[in-house]
From TrEMBL, chains A, B:
Protein name (database record): Ornithine cyclodeaminase
Domain of life of the native organism: Bacteria
InterPro entries named in the record: NAD(P)-bd_dom_sf (IPR036291), ODC_Mu_crystall (IPR003462), ODC_N (IPR023401)
Taxon lineage: Bacteria, Pseudomonadati, Pseudomonadota, Alphaproteobacteria, Rhodobacterales
Pfam families: OCD_Mu_crystall
Length: 349, 349
């Protein structure tokens, strides 16, 4: 019938093609690459158009849009969060994203982001740990062994040199799943029966549980001096994982304070509780880890710029690969003022 | 390789399939149907989650996200506005949209919306005119003969009984294009050399020009008693089409005041200039046209609920048609916690 021009076509990366792309690059290389892209964008943090995510809440979950722009490219992610979905055989979180050209407003990439978000979240955690975790860290406790746990473990291995993962989940089946998935990765994996056992000897404590209510995955007395806490499970109002006493004793690093104060662990604290923005650590404007007994806490909720970095990366990497195909998403009449004529001619051809 | 489950697949309507769908239904029937869906949603206006569009501005244009929800479905539209695009052979406006299930957060429809927006904008204008234009209106002046002009003309014909269109554009080629496109529609089309000539005897004055700066397409002395003005070209800060004197003499109807006060014709007026919300006219809570000498003005900027109605309509209409295909957009592992395992298994199959 009609043959759309190249301008009207948007490259699309399906779930299947995203998996192929990851295997083509190698998951550890891809985690390292993503961390580099994210780090590069954190270094130019100030030039981004930033806004807290635009959320639509219901009784059972939330649907969010996360837009940002660096002035040349514009990206956004659609993401839902429905903790009850798992019990119905569905994903708690699904996502897709789009990158567009600011100069024309035309989209240039549409991609699945359920898997890509798992990778960018892990890459962000490891990138932060590179600046904040104790020097020579080799052991991570992984509390919560759901969909994010393997990605966290591999990113900490690839980027921070972690060689041992101590797993704990209140559901032993989740721990078994995670341990089996990490079996041939070169990591030493230890299954633990309690959170206390999991954190024994760990330099990095990663919490990533899906509890919706304010929970206390880590109590104050569990956290000793000198560790780095990577708290990624608290990501919406009413959802936290750490005892407030831990927050009081920690130096807290965040992505974007207006969003973190609503969604992160620090929603438990006063609105002016001191935090350091991670991008300032990366540019050198603020100090990261300052001593061996300091407790550092990355209160991560996920920010649009990390998705933007991941979209940039996918756009760059799919070039000259077969891992995408074109969608006829944009109308492109020969005469831009003649949308109607294009429509009428389509009926005759 | 992997075969995604039905839950992971999202029906997609391409530009080509949208054009087929329109011809399958018939453009006039589709405009009438869309007006009905929009009217139904305006009747239940209060239950929608409403927010002004989320805009990212640059020197040359704007990219916007327009989300809304009725509690059962969630919809958003991506749309750009780049007036300079036309001179580069590109569309000023391109758009696509998504509908999702609020209960699961899973997308259920992805569709082109460049053409669909043209239809919903025209259907909204005609739906408003049904309530606001003088009884027995038969003639419309169409000032600005760009991409929206034919859709406006056909919607006013289908929904309000307009039989004569008087065209004016500062570029005669645009008028020629519009007149040629309307040649076999049953409308009497009159090409006019000046705006003054175009409005002679017209009951409805539609302005839809693409000028970026504050322009005066209609001056105060051009607008006599008893007409309905359908002002759709003013849709961003700094872009207006009407002399402020016209606004002073008109009863002004708007979609969503927080957005219209920034983007519409009333950005020229004080922030508390009286306006009536269109949905209140439709429910009967407020009066529409009250007399034969009244000037009514629909200061339309386009609102997310209109796109939501259009998305609902497309979702309903593509069922049992071939005008869509499935996109592998959502990861759907057998075990929702095992995204990593799905990824690893994809490499072996």
């Amino acid at each position: 019938m009609t043959t759309p021009s190249a301008k009207a076509l948007v490259p699309f990366v399906s779930v299947d093609n995203m998996m192929r792309l990851i295997h083509h690059i190698g998951i550890q290389d891809m985690l390292r690459d993503l961390a580099s892209y994210i780090e590069a964008d954190f270094k130019r943090w100030e030039l981004f158009d930033k806004t807290p995510r635009v959320a639509s809440h219901s009784d059972v979950g939330v649907i969010e849009l996360m837009p940002t722009s660096d002035g040349e490219a514009y990206g956004f992610k659609y993401v839902n969060g429905h903790p009850k979905n798992t019990s119905e055989g569905l994903q708690t979180v699904t996502a897709f994203g789009l990158l567009a050209d600011v100069y024309t407003g035309y989209p240039v990439l549409l991609t699945e982001m359920t898997i890509l978000t798992a990778l960018r979240t892990a890459a962000t955690s490891a990138m932060a740990a590179k600046y904040l975790a104790p020097k020579g860290s080799s052991t991570m406790a992984m509390i919560g062994n759901g969909a994010q746990s393997e990605f966290q473990s591999l990113a900490m291995q690839a980027i921070c040199g972690i060689d041992t993962i101590r797993l704990y989940d209140k559901d032993p089946a989740a721990t078994d799943k995670c341990a089996a998935n990490l079996a041939h990765t070169g990591l030493t994996v230890v299954k633990c029966a309690t959170p206390e056992e999991a954190i024994e000897g760990a330099h990095i404590l990663t919490t990533c549980t899906a509890d919706k209510q304010n929970a206390t995955i880590l109590t104050d007395n569990m956290v000793g001096a000198g560790v780095h806490i990577n708290a990624i499970g608290g990501d919406c109002p009413g959802k936290t994982e750490l005892a407030s006493g831990i927050l009081t004793r920690s130096d807290i690093f965040v992505e974007y304070p207006p969003q973190t104060r609503v969604e992160g662990e620090i929603q438990q604290m006063s609105p002016d509780h001191p935090v350091t923005e991670l991008w300032e650590v990366i540019t050198g404007a603020a100090q990261g880890r300052s001593g061996s007994r300091q407790i550092t806490l990355f209160d991560s909720v996920g920010f649009a710029i990390e998705d933007f970095s991941a979209l940039r990366y996918v756009r760059d990497k799919i070039k000259d690969t077969p891992f995408h195909y074109d969608l006829d998403l944009l109308a492109d009449p020969d005469d831009p003022r003649d949308v109607f004529g294009m429509l009428m001619r389509a009926d005759q051809s």
